[in-house]
Amino acid sequence: xxxxxxxxxxxxxxxxxxxxxxxxxxxxxxxxxxxxxxxxxxxxxxxxxxxxxxxxxxxxxxxxxxxxxxxxxxxxxxxxxxxxxxxxxxxxxxxxxxxx
Length: 100
Known about the structure:
The protein is mainly α. It is 89% helix and 0% strand. The radius of gyration is 21 Å and the shape is rod-shaped.
């Protein structure tokens, strides 16, 4: 059973490949930025913690919790909105290539 005409299939494959490339680049750029910000944050961790303690009275343990929570949420959002769409496009491309 043929689902698509050849030209329709080629158009769909081109669109999927474009989306796949976009989401892969999006994920890689987001991951690189997250790692760079993490290392910069770790270099400034003690100074930032002391500043927040002096200015806002934030407990040191609470600051550590906020720091870990921020990067955890960033990682989840990066995976959810960049890696998952890339994997979906990859599987759609493979499925479309299998069909006649």
